[in-house]
Amino acid sequence: MPEVIYTIDGNDFENLTELSQVFSKTVLQNHTWHGNFNALNDLLRGGFGTPEEGFTLVWKNSGKSRDDLGQNATVKYYEQLLKVCQPDNRVYLEEELERVCQGAGPTLFEIIVKIIHDHGPGGSEAEDGVLLQLE
Known about the structure:
Helices cover 47% and strands 12% of the residues. It has six helices and three strands, in the order E-H-H-E-H-H-H-H-E. It has a three-stranded parallel β-sheet, with helices on one face. The two termini are 17 Å apart.
């Protein structure tokens, strides 16, 4: 288990923008995550102020975050992306929005948790040593 432990609390944010601010303030040094999932993936690889040997992220009140970053927030997220996306991404985003509207697509919470898990034990980038503890 990595020695460094960071704790975020679902009571401290209600949406993806606020989560990214809390994550940046708590975990990153001299870097800011703006809520982009590709960027989160890069940040978890290290080199952005996180320990090279990995870390544990404790997410308190994650049940509240599951609700806050659930289906409604995910629909709004995709609707906003569709307003500014590149034409090449439009079909993909429309399909993802439709899946979420039908309750079949992953929510923002599930996307974030999966990205973090990918950087921990059994994940595709397990060598990064990031452990997620949902409380």
